[in-house]
Amino acid sequence: MPIDLSDYEPKTTLKVAVTHVPRALFPSIDFHTHLTFPAVVKNGVGLGERLSFLATAEEALDVMDRCNLRMLVNVTGGAGKGLEEAIRRFPAAHPGRFMVFTEPRWEHTNEPGYAKFQADEIERALRQGARGLKILKTLGLYLRENITSGPLVKIDDPRFDPMWETCGGLGMPVAIHTSDPDAFFLPTDRVNERIEELGNHPDWSFHGQDFPAKRELLEARNRVFARHPKTRFVALHVANHPEDLSDVASVLDRFPNVDVDIAARINELGRQPRNTRRFFERYQDRILFGTDATPNQDEFPQQIFGPELYEIYFRFLETEDESFDYAPAPKPPQGRWQIYGLGLPENTLRKVYFENAARLLGL
Question: Residue 300 — very low, low, confident or very high, per pLDDT cuts 50/70/90?
Answer without folding.
Answer: low
